[in-house]
Amino acid sequence: MKNFSIQLITLLLLTTSGKAVAQDKKIEDLNFLYVDEKYDKLVDRSIKLMDDATYRKHPMPYLYAAMGLYEISKLPEKYSVGERDSDYPKPLKDAEKYIYKYVKAEAKAQKYFDDYEPTMEDYKEFFINIADTANKLGQHLFLVDKPRKAALEYKYAFKAIPNDPVLQLWQGISEIKSMNAVEGEKNAREAMALIDEKFEPSTATAGVISSGMLILEEYFTQAGDMEMAAKAKKMVEVFKKYDPEVLDKKKQEEKKQKAKEKDVVMKKFYSDEDDEDNQDLKKGKVIIDQDVKNADKKLDEIEDDFDN
């Protein structure tokens, strides 16, 4: 983290100009809070800047809010997280929301700030870390039979990091398992269209491509779509080098059992408020989760905010 923080300070110093000194000073203050590991103050200060007319369209407050919330999500022993009445009920999900908003602001920043230099490439490591954490949590939720929670986790992650189709792949798989087959198959097909022999996976999600394709091979075979089943089977072979045990049923069952044993610890990282994950499922019923509706509405509002 220290090397990453030093890079941030250097970047800010290099991009400071006479016209934007006041702005950069406030952004630098956010960086120093990050370096000092005062993540709660960092989030508060970043959100306050978002309410400032001068900074409302500046990308960096959204990015720093995301960075602070991500660190908070990893420290449940230090911060109040994970419950409805916590200070930070869903810090990882909120971090992903602010990354999404950062990406929208970054695309238009030079329109509002003449001297703004694009920064997305400078934070690739952070985006990989977010994808890695979201993927691990999504995999855990999937393995402990909470597919709707897994689908929502992958949905938020893919919204934040749309250049990783593996996140969308697992969103689709999780939706299919939660009996939202229409939306799930749509997402799975879109992701599979982007994943072929030449696809270079992120280090965050490379290890779950073959297991996902194995599930989809069976799904499309049962659905009678032999072309998609054949492609999924081929991708298992292409990407199993990242997960050599993917075809070992005993190892996969052990992985699932370990996930169940770890669930007591992992519950610190996801909300427990709707723990009856499959309580409303009925055979043949497509679930449209209220949380998913609310999430889509919130993200649409964010997008509209920056398009206007």
Task: Please state the structural category.
Answer: mainly alpha
Beta-strand portion reads under 5%
What proportion of the residues is helical, as a percent range?
A: 55-70%
The poorly predicted ranges are: 12-22, 272-300, 302-308
Number of strands: 0
Q: Tally the helices: what do you get?
A: 13
Arithmetic mean pLDDT:
82
Question: In sequence order, what are the helices and strands, one letter per element?
Answer: HHHHHHHHHHHHH
Major sheet, described briefly? Answer: none
**End-to-end distance, in Å?**
36 Å
Number of domains: 2
Quaternary structure classification: single chain
Rg calc = 20 Å
Mass-distribution shape: globular
Give the gist of this structure.
This protein has 308 residues and is mostly helical.
Structure description:
The chain is globular and about 60 Å long. It is mainly alpha-helical. It has two domains: 118 residues, no CATH class; 166 residues, no CATH class. It has 13 helices and no strands. The C terminus is likely disordered. α5 packs parallel to α13, α7 runs antiparallel to α8 and α8 packs across α10.
Fold blueprint:
Elements: H1 2-15, H2 21-35, H3 39-50, H4 59-73, H5 91-112, H6 124-143, H7 147-160, H8 165-177, H9 181-194, H10 209-223, H11 226-239, H12 249-266, H13 290-307
